[in-house]
Amino acid sequence: MANEPSMVRRHSRLSDGGMMERRHSQPKMRRGPLPQVVVRNFIAEVEPNILRAWLKIFDPEYRFHITSDQFCMGMERAGYAGDVYLLFQRLDTDNSGKLTLDEIDEDAAKLCLTFKQWCVASFESPLDMVYRLSRGKDYLSEEDFKLRCRLFDWKDGQEEWLWKGVALHNEEYVRPEMLKWMALGKEEHREKEELKKLAMKVHAVKIRERQMLAQAAGEQVHKYEMAKAVKALCWPGEFRILWKALDKDP
Q1: What residues contact residue 120 under an 8 Å CB cut-off, 6+ apart?
Q2: Is residue 10 part of a domain?
Q3: I want to staple 52 with a disulfide (CB 3.0 to 4.6 A). Which of 27, 164, 185, 247 is the partner?
Q4: Is the pLDDT of residue 135 over 80?
Q5: CA neighbours within 13 Å on the CB side: how many for 41?
Q6: Contact status, residue 120 vs residue 129, Cβ threshold 8 Å
């Protein structure tokens, strides 16, 4: 009987150890694929070119950011059978309620944004872009696009890949009215430039105000010192008239 407690303790230790061994021997739960991979794999089945897929399914205006509604409706229209809302939550790690192309494919997003900025900076309008790249025609072919982009200082290549986004529905030719994203980009660019000009004007006004305040502060200090001196000398006249006569500034 005296040995019973030690036997119980030993049995308890063995039992605990056995439980620990069983817990460690259990296979770890496998996590599913990353949500970015899920989206890339799914839209690749719809359209192998990720730029064209992104634009056709989610973002026809080339904004490169979409809302949760745009994402969910786009995935459902494309035939995704999973939980689109849960998928969006997994993608939206910053809880912004928006999704950008770089959260799906960072390299593709960088190239697309660079191309859009180049178009906006290089051409006055969709008509100007088509006219200049097509050598004076009112439509743009894939051949002209691939050959002539570099003549207008496009340096990042991938013209064949980018054409898939320009000719969004696999058109043989692209006309100016099909480049609405370019017109929107120009409008956004103009708005940003106007805001920059306004900010510069506001900044200039603030600088001028500070200069005037500094001058005024210096003048007040000078007046104060002069008033003290006049008072000490018991000047009988009106200080304002004296100051006006002594002040050299008009």
Answers
A1: 182, 185, 186, 188, 189
A2: no
A3: 164
A4: yes
A5: 6
A6: no
pLDDT at 141: 93
Residue type, 83: D
Report whether 91 contacts 39 (CB < 8 A): yes
Our count of domains for the chain comes to 3
Q: Which two tokens stand for residue 154?
A: 């496009």
Q: What is the DSSP string of 163-208?
A: HHHHSTT--SEE-GGG-HHHHHHHHHHHHHHHHHHHHHHHHHHHHH
Residue 61 sits in the same domain as residue 92: yes
What residue type is 180 in one-letter code?
Answer: K
Quote the CA–CA distance of 199 and 15 in Å, as a whole number.
Answer: 74
Q: String of b and e for 170-188 (b: at least 16 CB within 10 Å)?
A: eeeebebebbebbbebbee
Instruction: List, for residues 16-42, the tens digit of each pLDDT value.
Output: 444 334 444 444 444 667 888 888 888
For the entire predicted model, the pTM comes to 0.59
Q: Work out the mean pLDDT of the chain and round it to a whole number.
A: 75
Q: Do 100 and 84 belong to one domain?
A: yes
Torsion of CA 74, 75, 79, 81, to 10 degrees: -150
The total number of residues written for the chain in this structure: 250
Show the domain range for 208. 184-246
- Location of structure tokens 């099909």: 178
Cα radius of gyration (the chain): 36
Residue 76 belongs to some domain of the structure: yes
Q: What is the rounded distance in angstroms from the CA atom of residue 182 to the CA atom of residue 120? A: 7
C-alpha distances in Å from residue 155, one per residue of 118, 146, 190: 10, 12, 24
Distance (Å, whole) CA 190 – CA 60:
21
Measure the CA–CA gap between 14 and 117, rounded to whole angstroms: 69
Beta bridge partners of 65: 100
